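Q: Trace token order:
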Amino acid sequence: MIKMKMRPLAVDAIVIYRDRLVFIKRKNEPYKGMLALPGGFVEEGETTEQAVIREVREETGLKAEILKLVGVYSNPHRDPRGPVVSICYLLKAAGEHKASTDASEVVLLKPAEVPMLAFDHNAMISDAEKECNLNGILSEVQEHHDPQQRRPEVP
């Protein structure tokens, strides 16, 4: 019989809230005090889709809906705790944000304002910009939420 060592499975969320991206300030190590995408480990009996929605709700208080799969991140050195595989999703969210569980603060930023993030989260955002038209989705959301930015209708 082959003995297999299983790698932990996590999820990360690129969350669009109004015309901003949602980040958390990490309450715990690793990367305590740094900004990161909301996310965490998949629990037993849970799908990755259920896990990412749960993690967003637990860490930010926001109710989220998955838009797209961004990618799978499996570099064995992406997490200093060990070789964790993460599945990243693009989501949109609504509600009032409030930091909880592993987050000490919820931070809303435009893509151009994003600093160096924990783990490989900058790469995830870069992939979402290239593969998922993140900037186009943000522009549509901004037009929907900011009536002054809407283009006049042509008769």
The longest strand covers residues 63-73. Residues 28 and 94 are 26 Å apart (CA to CA). The chain has three helices and seven strands. The chain has a mean pLDDT of 92.
